Amino acid sequence: xxxxxxxxxxxxxxxxxxxxxxxxxxxxxxxxxxxxxxxxxxxxxxxxxxxxxxxxxxxxxxxxxxxxxxxxxxxxxxxxxxxxxxxxxxxxxxxxxxxxxxxxxxxxxxxxxxxxxxxxxxxxxxxxxxxxxxxxxxxxxxxxxxxxxxxxxxxxxxxxxxxxxxxxxxxxxxxxxxxxxxxxxxxxxxx
Amino acid sequence: xxxxxxxxxxxxxxxxxxxxxxxxxxxxxxxxxxxxxxxxxxxxxxxxxxxxxxxxxxxxxxxxxxxxxxxxxxxxxxxxxxxxxxxxxxxxxxxxxxxxxxxxxxxxxxxxxxxxxxxxxxxxxxxxxxxxxxxxxxxxxxxxxxxxxxxxxxxxxxxxxxxxxxxxxxxxxxxxxxxxxxxxxxxxxxxxxxxxxxxxxxxxxxxxxxxxxxxxxxx
Lengths: 191, 219
Description:
The complex is a heterodimer of chains A (191) and B (219).
Chain A: E1 4-14, E2 17-28, E3 32-36, H1 43-51, E4 58-64, E5 67-70, H2 82-93, H3 99-104, H4 120-133, E6 138-142, H5 150-165, E7 169-173, E8 183-186
Helix pairs in contact in A: 2-4
Chain B: H1 2-17, H2 25-42, H3 46-64, H4 74-78, H5 81-87, H6 92-122, H7 126-154, H8 160-171, H9 173-184, H10 190-218
């Protein structure tokens, strides 16, 4: 798997406030970055810019490989069962269902339950399954550990490690420690 | 093409069945309820009903087209579905084209069928019913297109749903004037003009709605 993600001289503006500026990063196959910083410092904005969903105020992002993003929004149809909701994305991505990932995330007993009945942690695990099933080279994870119990947090850490092993790139924005020995990028609140 | 079909299948599931949000059934019942209440309001004068009934069906169809607007775009925008499409290289325009087709399929065919019992309730003759059905065939794609544009523009606004209905009505005036106008003057080109407006709106809607979704991201 070949993957590359780099950003040069990145600045982000929200309204009248400059959240960060002059940000540089370069990640190649197997690299991972943990973006830390207090709330409101621009972690989510950085993830969205790296994903190409919003334009940076200044600077450019370069991506090689397909991008998968996980944020606080589930992007699964809440009226459908988890199986049907995940199937939609599998069909769209043209990938078969991955019972292995579902089992690792403890989703097998939940597959026939409507998504709206799932708890916060179960929803997060469902979103992780959706994200992992995409088979993308670049993972952009915004607070992937929120609401997860210790076991699930370890599973996520293992998934990230396996993704890096396979040559993927991973950026994690989280105020929590990931349990992995990752290089850190600390965003400072604007002065 | 398979992407479009996958999108269409999901949209149809959401709009036709609708789960907890009420599906295609709601506009249909609403449409029939209006047709049922109108004779109570104006009295059982057959000539008056026969003369005004076609117009009433048009207004009822217009109002029924407003009902699905609240869930047409807003839920998916808030749930991050369009962002996930963008990451997969699915253009907002194709997502909106699929949704336009699904929206029309979910409300128009049922409405056309409901015209039969509604015509009986209002005492419309066969000729009049034919004019109403043909007019709605020509006009409902336009109503669906306006509905999609308006709900995409309003999706990121908090009070958007209430406003969306209000915005749809003036935009739907050309379709209504041509389509319902053909009832009293069947020899005019009203139906053809209603169809023209509809087609132009359908061609425009995926692009306008797609642009609205992209703009909502930058907000």
